[in-house]
Specification:
4 copies of one chain form a homotetramer. The first copy, chain A, has 3 domains: 148 residues, HUPs (Rossmann fold), CATH 3.40.50.620; 139 residues, Argininosuccinate synthetase, chain A, domain 2; 41 residues, no CATH class. Helix content of chain A is 42%, strand content 19%. Chain A is built from 14 helices and 14 strands. In chain A, the strands form 3 sheets. A 5-stranded parallel beta sheet of chain A has the order 3-2-1-4-5, with helices on both faces. The first copy, chain A, has a 5-stranded antiparallel beta sheet with strand order 10-9-8-13-14. In chain A, strands 6-7-12-11 form a 4-stranded antiparallel beta sheet, with no helix packed on it. In chain A, α4 crosses α5 and α11 packs antiparallel against α12. Chain A is elongated and about 85 Å long. The relative contact order of chain A is 0.12. Chains A, B, C, D: Its EC number is 6.3.4.5.
């Protein structure tokens, strides 16, 4: 132990694992524990966490509904970038960690705690995301990562510790879970055990947030989403708060079998892992956002966004939300969204999200310009000849000295 | 007219438009016309083109089946990059143009022609793609783009010209087509007229290559694709040629309502346009390729590929296939595919392409490394502490002088 | 002529070429000409331009000192990016064009002109820079580029036209200039004729703004520059305006033989050209800005800036200052400069700019962290072991299946 | 200790520090030590290292002259990229580490060693570079980094250990060195102690490889360098081996005060550090390589290279030479160099490297195209009008709906 810990703010779910951590912190560090439980839309009751914390003698218990903040200040900024990690993953877990870290640090400063603790393991990305957030917000905070410190290296030992320490164990937690789950308003992720062989598709029981495309209705659902400066602000013509919109989109997505992803991805800590993700509302939102951008965003603005997107997504995946480089990229992205305003119509059908229309007062789409019909002089086809000639000039100069076909 | 044209190689489909062009070239330039008609999998008979050409008195008629070359040397290299233009478009039209341009130039050199001609309009991307290809391969070639030169600026005038010049007009070509179509083995694209309002979804009649997800079977189809060095080499365990694989994947995709895209995109010539694309086999192939890469490609190799992909896709879209920069990027991409070998299992269902398994002799996925179970020392969780500490160091140094949370 | 021109705002230097253009506009378009002459620090008297314009019967003559605007709103934002085109060129000509274009459009709107005109040739970049600026600021403006329109294709014809039209010709303009010059407060560029062979170094007579390193003093000059949020605000401890700082730095640079560059570069219009540039003050400023960034900018912030810099420089070179993508990149860059504040000490000696010291209240340089001496626990060397282990993990996994040394 | 070490290959310089390490390895691990001493052009006799190693009872002593390999396979590939870390640093130390690591692993496999050891400290980049190289080449190798393991945390303790263990200490090593030096054929770097305050310029005694610009001759030296496929192959018309060329360029650079750099840089391990570098020959080589590229490399090829260069340089700095991503980027870079062949003339004068001429059989510079004179129709100025119009189209469309000047 580097130095004595006096008071630690624990990210506490109320479940078995973080309850063991809570007791272990008390036992090991002989310190006061402050619990922090956040509603990020994971779909669990929070009040049981209070009861349990009280049972452990916790005096300072923080239980907060952060859903609106989560969507408004984390999910939406990220969606402005159309962020996809490794071309596919909507970053549902990654984007929640910085908010939890931020509140833990704020609470630590409020209650005079000198440490924070989390329940992420030593093999995953979440430990990195939590701790980079902690350190970026408070460089002197002491971080406790029990999974990297203790010797409870098997489920059996954990259960034993729980029993020895009078921690209640619900029946379903006694055996090993067939896979591990993380959830919030944006998504649910499942990984481990049952899912460890990437050659075998996930069993239907893995899915928590969506019905299967097969089970979805045979008739499509049609919706519209309104955007203002790149953010969703309304659904089917009704203005709604950020978290409400995402909640409703989740319902639409769930019902229509939308947003499942079975992925082998690369962790920041170095190995590949397999995750099964469900992002019903997010999947719809991404399609819609691309749809509204398609008519409102300038070509080069869009291409520039696309070119930096992989790096932006990587930063969030790796835990660098609170970093200068993420803030710089965000400034670039946010600048681009000034006119990303309008309505997108979508059809949801058995796993498909189909953009059926887009309209905007700021549309750059110009029928007169593009029409095959007479365009009344909007576009001079002769210009194309010169445009091509000069774009070809360097290639012709190359070819004329023997470098044909773009040979170097 | 810059100088007299003696002999021109025309990209000739046999349809009304290129027949009018053929005659117009004869009339206007008083030159010999050589026709070149390629089978790129557009799904039309080629022999009628020969008949028609003969009818125009053409002496040198080239009709070639280029499907294998098209898939092997153009489509597959592009798919190694997971190329998507503007995040969505699989570049089906763009990738065919360089091959046509290349053959036209080769034929021109073979027959001693001093010019080439194409039937692309002055508002689109294809004129650019053809002509950049021509010039890169032969810097001195004379390029004739009738749509930019003549005064047949309306359908009526075109029909009149055809009638005046004894060009047969099939009944369905007399009226204006409700939209314009381009097709090859990779895709079919539709645009114009009926599709000009991006607020309104495309009518079902637009689709040529796919049935709708709604019309697709209620039971999923399961297939597997084998990859070798990044290219598909087998289907359901059977080794097949490139064009055969793509043909079969198109059948699977078509039957399962896969690969439709309704997009507003940005043209290189400067305006936005709306296209409806059908890429049934390509959509399956992309998912499968990402699947096999997910277990065989190193993380940073994959991220590097992702970071240059938008530029690579843009180059192909803009017509720079035969350019030094495309060749350089291709060298980077091809280098990455050395071990992208193995099998991907997929489920096709009503518009969905779902990867259900991947396996490879070169898999970098290591169960022992990632398992929640005891990993027998494969991974030392203590390493993560140091890893995080040093990744956080610069953020902590910043925070310690007042730049909290990554403030700059 | 597309339509009749009523009133045109001409970027007018007062020299022979733009005087011929002035008269040619009057003769050709039979329109009113408004002259606009700006002092961007080119080092020429402006009042003669007024005299001349009056002589041509011009009624609305705009002569403006834009030096402060030029440096504050164009040069300084660009220097925040450390912009270098093709690794070397400080973009002295490129950065001046947007300001001229902007003022021409503002004046056109003020005086009710329907057209603007410039004196750039049809082979260079400047025509592009002017016209992209015009169109971005006023999409309906009529642009007249006499060099692309008239038939004065040789010096002889131009002189003849001048004589025929009573345009006074100073003796030194009668013969052909041995090279062509553009100058402003940031730089002087020379190109053409005498300089056309890139195998031969420029003659000393080409240089206008600098003495040679050989001719510079044998004793170094020491100066300091103060920065605030990335911009130079003081020199040798004295607070000065942007244009004053650049003027003084030019004097320092000139006297010490600093800022010469003999370059073959690639023009946007497609060919290579050879330019000789002198950017005395800018060369010092770049070194100083890199110096202050080196202690105040976060590593990843700096690397992100470096990674987008080539694209940013290319945009400015190509004339896209007034574009969405330049504005987005500027937002990213400006965000990065919040703490780029402090002082840089430099030594100037015979062509060398040597940073000799940097200090800042926001310095991220931490002696305790970096020292070889005992650091009192600031840095735990054990962390490096874990850091390396996890950074190596993917490489080890690759090597363990036969991909040694990063083989793919 | 994880497991018993039997035989370790130590990167051994023969100096005090690595001699202490040698003895410490024998004492601590009770293992056989194999020494490896490489001549990378650091300018020290190697035979004394053999004597010393024998004195320690070493049986297997490897002393190798790797200068040609170093320049040919490491320095030259890197210079093809014009690599500069953080815009300025020529990566002299970084590029030497992978070669040492490679040979250590090869020797370990030859002699049946199970471990390797190096003398880099726990705060620097070199430990990372060595160890990433080791692991990438042999995933199972045991790595010993004494500076991170032992308790010789001060110079005094090190000296005591040397005395106790009968390790000879030359007089000058008894006191603390005022700074620490690393050198090879490409450069010399100095850092630490005397240099720790970045506000104060380095004392002249720091410089090892160059005389000062002030001390350099008053008359310029003129040289020429011949390139073939991007690599230097001749000097002043004489064909020479890679190492010979670099050696001669070092002499030219040294004599003319060229290649000094005083830099605050960002280490991969997280903190800023200050280094003073001397890269006399490399500085000349970079200027020359840019010079030959300027006439032989296609514009977009060059811009693509420039855009990936910062990442390439970062990879080398961070120690990822043996990585898939470096190999991919190298493939891109090497592809670009096919025609980078020709001669560059340079003038060296008191710290300045001035390109005075370039010529190549593959030059893309075309006087006829660029001339202000009559170009005989090589370039049609009318093309520029169309080129600009279409490049402006999107900006005009934006401006026409109120987004003037590239507003978003």
């Amino acid at each position: 132990m580097e130095h004595k810990v006096k008071k630690v703010v624990l990210a506490y779910s109320g479940g078995l694992d973080t309850s063991v951590i809570l007791r272990w912190l008390q036992n090991t560090y002989n310190c006061e524990v402050v619990t922090f439980t956040a509603d990020l839309g994971q779909g669990e009751e929070l009040e049981p966490a209070r009861k349990k914390a009280e049972m452990f003698g916790i005096k300072q218990i923080f239980i907060e509904d952060l859903r609106e903040t989560f969507v408004k200040d984390f999910v939406f900024p990220m969606f402005r970038a159309n962020a996809l990690y490794e071309g596919q993953y909507l970053l549902g877990t990654s984007i929640a960690r910085p908010l939890i870290a931020q509140r833990q640090i704020e609470i630590a400063e409020m209650v005079g705690a000198d440490a924070v603790a989390h329940g992420a393991t030593g093999k995953g990305n979440d430990q990195v995301r939590f701790e980079l957030g902690y350190y970026a917000l408070n460089p002197n905070i002491r971080v406790i990562a029990p999974w990297r410190e203790w010797d409870l290296t098997s489920r059996t030992k954990l259960i034993e510790y729980a029993e020895t320490n009078q921690i209640p164990i619900t029946k379903d937690k006694r055996g090993e879970a067939p896979f591990s789950v993380d959830a919030n308003l944006l998504h649910s992720s499942s990984e481990g055990k049952l899912l460890e062989d990437p050659a075998i598709g996930p069993d239907e029981i893995v899915y928590q947030r969506t019905i299967s495309p097969e089970a979805a209705p045979d008739v499509a659902t049609e919706i519209s989403i309104d955007f203002l400066h790149g953010d969703a602000v309304g659904l089917n013509g009704e203005a709604l708060s950020p978290a409400t919109i995402l909640t409703r989109l989740n319902e639409y997505g769930k019902a229509n079998g939308i947003g499942r992803l079975d992925l082998v991805e690369n962790r920041f800590v170095g190995m590949k892992s397999r995750g099964v993700y469900e992002t019903p509302g997010g999947t719809i939102l991404l399609a819609a956002h691309r749809g509204i951008e398609s008519i409102t965003l300038d070509r080069e603005a869009g291409h520039l966004k696309d070119s930096i997107m992989p790096r932006y997504a990587e930063l969030i995946y790796n835990g660098f939300w609170f970093s200068p480089e993420r803030r710089m990229l965000q400034a670039l992205i946010d600048t681009s969204q000034a006119s990303v305003t309008g309505r997108v119509m979508l059809k949801l059908y058995k796993g498909n999200v189909i953009v059926t229309g887009r309209e905007s007062p700021h549309s750059l789409y110009n029928t007169r310009m593009v029409t095959f019909e007479d365009d009344a002089g909007a576009y001079n086809q002769q210009d194309a000849a010169g445009f091509i000639k000069l774009n070809a000039l360097r290639l012709r100069l190359g070819a004329s000295i023997g470098r044909r076909g773009g040979a170097l």
